[in-house]
Amino acid sequence: MTNGREDSAPEVLGIIGAGRVGRVLARLAVAAGYRVLVAGSGRPARIAATIGAVASGAEVAETAVVAWEADLVVLALPLPAHRGLPADELRGKLVIDAMNYWWEADGLRPEYADLRTSTSEIVQRSLPGARVVKAFNHMGYRDLDEEARPAGTPGRKAIAVAGDDAEDVRTVMRLVDDLGFDPVYAGPLGEGIRLEPGAEAFGADVDATELRAMLERFPTSQRGIMVARARGRRRQ
Ligand SMILES: NC(=O)c1ccc[n+]([C@@H]2O[C@H](COP(=O)([O-])OP(=O)(O)OC[C@H]3O[C@@H](n4cnc5c(N)ncnc54)[C@H](OP(=O)(O)O)[C@@H]3O)[C@@H](O)[C@H]2O)c1
């Protein structure tokens, strides 16, 4: 699990959100050879202590610095907080949306429950000029922490990736692989809804074959039928 750049400067992975998911991703990315920059909402000194305990080698910086310096930026913060992200610094960046609308924590927000739109599309609209790809949202942080394996390991678990640009999707799939999981393409960003809470794939800690099967079953699931109706489409 390396990023294949041992001979040059390591690729810089930024993580905004230093909570359960952010810390696990930081640990996996450091282990994979990335230079990792992490931002949280608190003072960098406090965050540095918690990050240092789990991901020795990760650096802590202000959000705008992480957004500006990183090649890839993972959003691992509560979904409503995307509104406060530094859009200027993220312009032109590949941004990986690992967030979910979790109403118990985030409060009731009808815009995130609108089946016509995936939450990643909402994030994309709030970050003009950034290229948003969805990944790392459906697997629980404990599974992320425990299930990373080298490529080729039998039964290796899979992470789905949804995005509109083929090159960006390839880049994120490579990151998924580097961090220890088989990447599975889930379709364009609007189809990221197949990975959201309420879909079968949400919470999935399964291999690539099973994850693909879950994604393919989505249109015939109750939620898939509701999504198709809301989007004015016949069942696929
Ligand atoms: N938990 C899971 O198993 C899991 C799995 C996959 C994806 N996710 C998704 O990942 C996101 C984070 O989940 P989590 O479980 O890691 O939550 P968490 O443990 O509560 O961590 C969220 C982190 O984001 C920070 N934060 C809040 N507002 C911020 C801002 N404006 N700028 C920078 N950092 C900010 C918080 O810092 P403070 O505490 O200092 O406010 C906290 O460290 C959620 O959208 C969740 O749905 C969760």
Unreliable segments of 5+ consecutive residues: none
Largest sheet: 8 strands, mixed
Summarize model confidence as the mean pLDDT.
Answer: 94
Oligomer: single chain
- The count of β-strands is 8
Radius of gyration: 17 Å
Choose one word for the global shape. Answer: globular
Which molecules are bound besides the chains? Answer: NADP nicotinamide-adenine-dinucleotide phosphate
Spatial strand order of the main sheet? 3-2-1-4-5-6-7-8
- Give the termini distance in whole angstroms: 37 Å
Count the helices. How many? 10
Computed structural class: alpha/beta
Strand content: 15-25%
* SSE succession: EHEHEHEHEHHEHEHEHH
Summarize the structure in words:
Helices cover 36% and strands 15% of the residues. The model has no long low-confidence stretch (mean pLDDT 94). The chain has 236 residues and is of the alpha/beta class. Strand 4 (72-75), helix 4 and strand 5 (94-97) form a beta-alpha-beta unit. The radius of gyration is 17 Å and the shape is globular. Helix 1 packs parallel to helix 7 (141-147).
Draw up the topology in text.
Layout: E1 12-16, H1 20-31, E2 35-39, H2 44-54, E3 59-60, H3 63-69, E4 72-75, H4 87-90, E5 94-97, H5 103-106, H6 119-126, E6 131-135, H7 141-147, E7 158-162, H8 166-179, E8 182-187, H9 208-217, H10 222-230
Parallel strand pairs: 1-2, 1-4, 2-3, 4-5, 5-6, 7-8
Antiparallel strand pairs: 6-7
The protein binds NADP nicotinamide-adenine-dinucleotide phosphate.
Residues 16-22, 39-42, 63, 76-79, 81, 84, 98-100, 102, 137, 140-141 line the site of NADP nicotinamide-adenine-dinucleotide phosphate.
